[in-house]
Amino acid sequence: MLVTFKYRPRNTFIQRLDPRTRLIFFLCVVLALTIPEIWDYRFILPLFFVSLTLFLISHIEWKDVRRILPFMFILVFFIVGLNGLLSGRGGPSSVTNIPSPVVFEVLWGIPITVSKMWFALTQITRMFTMALLVIPIPYTMDPNIYGTAFKRMGASDKVSFTMDLAFRFLPTFARDFMITMDAQRARGYEMDNLKGGLVARIQRLAPLIIPVVMQSTVTGEEVIDAMDLRAFGTKPRTWLKDLKYAPRDFFLLGLGVAIFIGCCVFKWGFGVGGYFVPDFFTNLFI
To answer: What's the predicted TM-score (pTM) here?
Structure first.
């Protein structure tokens, strides 16, 4: 049986939005930050605070995201941020080309410049801006309308149902993993103190990995059989839920479109939004 994240009804502005509005707004913000390659902190910071505001008013409790947020921080700080700090890659070529004071050197004489430090901060802020819009979705969006939302956005039945299953895959996999772990512990298998090298630890995890993979395969086959029994794909299907836009949806949709168009106009029309290091940041290290 497929499960979902810990969704529960909340009487918040975010939950009263049409799910299509939230998906389109997220897409507008991502495109605004990536297509015109906006690197100016005067554009990124306002978008970050908009994302942070929407995240806070979603009223997600700490216990719901306490396992996700640490992974997100590790991913952003130690992978995205560290890569930008050491190499300056993943951004505009001006990160390493512009003259910039060297603050210190690390490892094998790799220079850490002011430009790289500012780029790392900018890249971290960009990633958090996108992440804060995505995290509330599985916790505040009714899982029964995942497929309906994509269908009403113009996707085909197959694509809509695929996205619905994709949203349910990770929590289902996590549930199967926890059930298998509890079952192995009940049989006396030691799961807490894994000793030895990398290969030895992987071998000791086999009693977990194999049953979970097999259960995922069986669940997938059951879903396929259920869809075949219902003749899925032979003709257009009907959807039980009906979605309608409200004035608040038009407001947020207009804001998202305005953000995307505004970033494109400023970057390609006025040449504003490119990468640069502000003077106040450079003066901190001189």
So the answer is: 0.80
Range of the domain at 37: 13-155+243-283
223 and 193 within one domain: yes
Cβ-contact 32, 263 below 8 angstroms = yes
Residue 7 lies in a domain: no
CA-atom Rg of the chain in angstroms: 23
Residue found under tokens 């075949």: 228
Q: Does residue 138 share a domain with residue 180?
A: no
Better-predicted residue by pLDDT, 192 or 155: 155
Same domain flag for 81 and 137: yes
216 in a structural domain = yes
Q: What is the pLDDT of residues 150-188, one digit of tens each?
A: 988 888 888 888 888 887 777 777 777 778 877 877 877
Phi-psi map region of 196: left, alpha, beta (phi>0 left; psi -120 to 50 alpha): left
Percent of the chain at pLDDT > 70 equals 90
Confidence of residue 31 (pLDDT cuts 50, 70, 90): very high
Note whether 127 and 173 are same-domain residues.
no
Instruction: Flag whether 91 is in a domain.
Output: yes
Number of domains in the chain: 2
Same structural domain for residues 108 and 17? yes
Phi, psi of 240 (to 5 degrees): -70, -40
pLDDT tens-digit profile of 251-276? 999 999 999 999 999 999 998 888 88
For residue 252, what pLDDT is reported?
A: 95
Report the C-alpha gap between 63 and 264 in whole angstroms: 39
